[in-house]
Design brief:
2 domains; single chain; mainly alpha; ABC-type uncharacterized transport system, permease component; YpjD/HemX; Cyt_c_assembly; heme binding
Length: 264
């Protein structure tokens, strides 16, 4: 049953992508209702699948693929809601494609990492904040890449400014730093709750998560300081945003990948 739900969600994600891409390439109108309905259906099936995969009878199965699929769901849901007011057409095919691949992998390549968060509500708070921090800062990395792409196309005089499906460059830049700011606040909350609620946070086998997360926090803090105090923007901001997201990915998934995939 899970495989059927995963395939149904993936098909709906692909339908949304197929509706968006021609409008970006040909600079024609995009059928917003079709995209929204397809994405909504995909998210319903995606959420249904996650509930089956994560909430096992013996606890919560937070395997690497399940967590990655959950991150994809959070990002897809957030950006689908933002689509109502903002032109996100350039990013949505990437996001929906990522979500489709992740949920198919989670359904077809099941893993096991059972936890018991019902007995540790404080740890649940920490994990929830961490997931939202990572999702928000991943969106920030995507925004930064979009910013560089738009800037490059405008400088090469590709006349993208008249494409009705692409957002204005300055609007993307403003949104980028708002997203980074919110994400860094959530990352701060992740670190604080980790110190308060996670036992042996810097014990052997666990230290890399806290250390890498703190390094990412420093990277994002420097970026925000540089932007608001020194006017950093463009490629410099993109490098900081992407490097910060890569460090967080190593922190959240690095050791899990080794244990669940390489050493499985």
């Amino acid at each position: 049953m899970d495989n059927i739900v995963a395939v149904a969600a993936a098909i709906l994600y692909v339908l949304a992508i197929a509706t968006i891409v021609p409008g970006l390439v040909q600079q024609t109108g995009i059928r917003v209702k079709t995209v929204f309905i397809s994405a909504a259906g995909a998210l319903v099936f995606h959420g249904w699948l996650l509930s089956d995969l994560i909430f096992a009878t013996s606890g919560q199965n937070l395997s690497m693929l399940n967590v990655a699929s959950l991150v994809g769901f959070i990002i897809s849901l957030t950006m689908s809601l933002a689509m109502i007011k903002t032109r996100l057409w350039f990013l949505l095919p990437v996001i929906y494609g990522f979500s489709a691949m992740n949920l198919l992998a989670a359904a077809l390549l099941p893993g096991t990492f059972i936890t018991h968060l019902e007995n540790e509500p404080a740890l649940l708070i920490h994990i929830s904040i961490a997931l939202f921090a990572y999702s928000t800062l991943s969106i920030g990395a995507l925004y930064s890449l979009q910013l560089v792409w738009l800037d490059r196309k405008l400088k090469t005089k590709k006349a993208l400014a008249i494409n009705p499906n692409l957002p204005p460059l300055m609007m993307v830049e403003r949104q980028l730093f708002k997203i980074i700011l919110v994400g860094n606040i959530l990352l701060t909350g992740t670190l604080l709750t980790g110190f308060m609620f996670v036992r042996d946070m810097f014990a052997q086998g666990q230290a890399h998560k806290g250390i890498l997360s703190f390094i990412a926090w420093i990277v994002y803090s420097i970026l925000l300081w540089g932007h608001y105090q020194r006017g950093w923007r463009g490629r410099k901001a993109t490098w900081f945003a992407v490097v910060g997201a890569m460090i967080l990915t190593l922190a959240y998934f690095g050791s899990r990948f080794v244990r669940e995939v390489i050493l499985h």
